[in-house]
Write a structure and sequence with these properties.
Elements lengths: L7 H17 L5 H7 L5 H13 L3 E2 L9 E2 L8 E3 L17 E3 L2 H4 L4 E5 L15 E5 L12 E6 L3 E10 L2 E5 L8 E4 L3 E11 L8
Antiparallel strand pairs: 1-2, 3-4, 5-6, 6-11, 7-8, 7-11, 8-9, 9-10
Length: 208
């Protein structure tokens, strides 16, 4: 039986819940949902939650906070992983056990987006000019962990892809190429726009 379709606001909240619970292993608070949906009142969140529950996408335990459970997820599709291939010495291809590379979580989550890389400041992390980087917007609305690769907007300088480090009230954005300079500035001048989760290299793409 086909599930009842969600409205765009309901789907936005549902996608947020699915990805947040998948990555954080617990339910977000109402306040976190409000901030993620850019809402000033809990009323729209509570209304959307009720609609999602009525449509049997989620459920929760009455009287207990943070007990939301995901009841429904779309059927997964993906690429068949046919086995292992050597990048050193030759090995026999073993393909008795099949697995699937599922990328639908990237395609169907509103918290994910792609950026085309321009430049080679991250080549030591195997990210080169012309690559597409798959970024995840903040879900828990906290700062990233030190060492994570982020898309960061620096006041007066623009947006850049770098490794992030924060110490006290200072932020360091470090390239993965010794030919590029480290960026250091006050934390309040840096806005983290996303955290790297994957890199896509299209060998048919030819940078101009």
């Amino acid at each position: 039986m086909e599930k009842e379709k969600l409205t765009p606001p309901q789907k936005e909240l549902y996608d947020f819940l699915v990805e947040y619970i998948r990555t954080e292993q617990h339910t977000p608070s109402i306040r976190q949902m409000m901030r993620a949906m850019n809402l000033k009142s809990p009323a729209p969140i509570q209304s959307r939650l009720e609609r999602l529950r009525n449509k049997k996408y989620i459920d929760w335990t009455e009287g207990k906070a943070r007990t939301i459970r995901i009841l429904y997820q779309p059927q997964k599709t993906g690429l068949q992983v046919e086995g292992t291939i050597a990048a050193g010495s030759l090995i026999e291809l073993f393909a008795d056990e099949k697995e699937t590379l599922d990328i639908t979580f990237i395609l169907h989550q509103s918290s994910f987006y792609a950026l085309r890389v321009m430049g080679n400041s991250m080549i030591d992390d195997m990210i080169q000019d012309g690559d597409l980087v798959i970024m995840q917007r903040h879900l828990n609305l906290d700062i990233p962990r030190n060492g994570e690769i982020v898309a960061a907007r620096v006041d007066g300088c623009g947006t850049t892809l770098k490794r992030y480090y924060k110490f006290a009230d200072r932020v360091t954005l470090k390239p993965s190429n010794s030919n590029f300079n480290v960026i250091e500035c006050d934390a309040n001048k840096v806005e983290i726009q996303g955290i790297l989760i994957a890199v896509w290299r299209d060998f048919l793409y030819k940078p101009k």
